[in-house]
Amino acid sequence: MVRRNYTEDDVAEAIFDTTDRGLSQNEAAQKRGVPQWTISRRLSGQASRNERIQAHQRIPKSQEETLIRWVLRQESLGYAPSHSQLRACVEAILQQQGDNKPLGKHWTTRFVKRHPKLSTKLGKRQEAARFDGFTPKAVNWYFDIRENEYGWIKPENTVNVDEG
Q1: What's the pTM value of the predicted model, to 2 decimals?
Q2: Which of 24, 27, 51, 57 would bridge 47 by S-S if both were Cys, CB 3.0 to 4.6 A apart?
Q3: Of residues 65, 110, 117, 55, the one with CA closest to residue 87
Q4: Which InterPro entries match (predicted)?
Q5: Long-range contacts of 53-62 (CB under 8 A, 24+ apart)
Q6: Could you give the CA distance from residue 64 to residue 154 in angstroms, rounded to a whole number?
Q7: pLDDT tens digits, residue range 49-74?
């Protein structure tokens, strides 16, 4: 398979060049870096590759977007899911919909490849020592010391070390 070095925006611009700006398909293809046959197919009404394969995917685009938001939210909280956790989550969703077939061997890898903003998020977890040290006893100890030593400082006059 030939590697694509163009985006859907490039294709849309190339089509606009041919329909509204009067360029030939070859000229638009060269200008935008899009294969001429792609422009020709789109002008004849064929769907994009992503639209064509969507019908064969087991999770609708809307659920994929929800899943992406969930992964990004978990990552912002310091709990980015691992590949196996993502797979388990999706398989649970599919089972709720009556689809009991397991996901393909490379599903998670391909999902991340389809959504590049996830590539650095999955598996990026907080250190276990940070969570192990976050106990009610440790929190109470911290706030007791803070109140005794620094209770006289107004909250609006307090900054973090990295805010200076």
Answers
A1: 0.51
A2: 51
A3: 110
A4: Homeodomain-like_sf (IPR009057), HTH_CenpB_DNA-bd_dom (IPR006600), HTH_Psq (IPR007889)
A5: 58/94, 58/99, 58/101, 58/103, 59/90, 59/93, 59/94
A6: 46
A7: 777 766 667 888 888 899 999 999 98
